[in-house]
Specification:
This protein is of the alpha+beta class and 275 residues long. The chain is 46% helix and 25% strand. The strands form two sheets. A seven-stranded antiparallel β-sheet has the order 3-9-8-7-6-5-4. It has a two-stranded antiparallel ribbon with strand order 1-2. The radius of gyration is 20 Å and the shape is globular.
Length: 275
């Protein structure tokens, strides 16, 4: 069976040890410049740039300009898709147990380490339309299943409220940056969280890309559980947003519901095999 073209690029990109080193480096510390990455490699900047271009073509990394600096970020979605297609079909609990045993044997403690999830997509819309879709309570309720409520001023609170009429907020936070229609940053925390807790942060970067828009969602300071939730949740939310803006309609079934059904079916098959 031949793998689809996009997955071919991923496997080709990861086949090279230098590119795997770059992926590992960005996993440890996301958002590095070319100079920072070159310091870890015994090669010229031009060669490093070529390796980074291969990774970007495979959608394994993305870049964002901050002033004169070009920052490189890991996009773990293609690797997650490999896991779902080729790894999850095996005995996941057993593999996870072996992985935990290996980590303990190597005394690799990750207690204080957080992760960053980054997702990039392209939407046939204007930056103003994407900004409106991210900040309008009624529109977010339509494609997200929750209404994002705020005046979207820096320092203001925001709430991720249920659409069942209860107005209960499942996520709350504070608006850190609001530069319409280009960039929105906010904290992402559970209601009632202690002030001393480290809260994750979500940023939306909206960039014109020829006649379309490139939307980058970055969720930082995630725990292991939070990273898994982000990896499953953000692609689903953004897919529904993209469908709404491009067709005027959300997807026939919420992607997160389909993902939950598939995972439940997979767990049932695993239980049946073990039984």
């Amino acid at each position: 069976m031949r793998v689809a073209g996009g997955m071919d690029q991923v496997f080709k990109a990861l086949a090279d040890p230098t590119r795997r080193h770059l992926v590992d480096s960005l996993h440890e510390r996301n958002g590095q410049t070319l100079t920072e990455l070159c310091m870890q490699l015994d090669m010229a900047r031009q060669s490093a740039t070529q390796h980074l271009a291969v990774l970007e073509a495979a959608n394994l990394i993305s870049t964002v300009w901050r002033g004169r600096e070009k920052l490189h970020y890991l996009n773990p979605v293609p690797i997650y898709e490999i896991q779902e297609r080729w790894i999850d079909k095996f005995e996941v609990p057993r593999l996870q147990a072996l992985s935990r045993l290996k980590q303990r044997a190597e005394e690799h403690h990750m207690t204080d380490v957080t992760a960053t999830f980054r997702y990039v997509t392209y939407i046939r819309a204007t930056p103003e339309q994407v900004w409106h879709a991210l900040t309008d309570a009624d529109l977010t309720g339509e494609y997200w299943g929750h209404r994002n409520v705020s005046d979207w001023q820096v320092g203001s609170a925001w709430e991720h409220q249920r659409t069942d009429g209860s107005c209960i907020a499942d996520v709350v936070g504070t608006v850190l940056e609001a530069i319409p229609p280009r960039r929105l940053v906010m904290t992402f925390e559970s209601p009632g969280a202690e002030p001393s807790e480290v809260h994750s942060r979500v940023s939306f970067d909206i960039e014109p890309y020829r006649e379309i828009v490139r939307l980058t969602v970055t969720h930082e300071d995630l725990t292991d559980d939070g990273f898994e939730a982000a990896a499953a949740g953000w692609p689903a939310v953004v897919a529904n947003l993209k469908s709404l803006l491009e067709t005027g309609n959300v997807l026939p079934q919420a992607p997160w519901e389909m993902h939950a059904e598939l995972r439940a079916a997979q767990m049932a098959r695993n239980d049946a095999r073990r039984g």
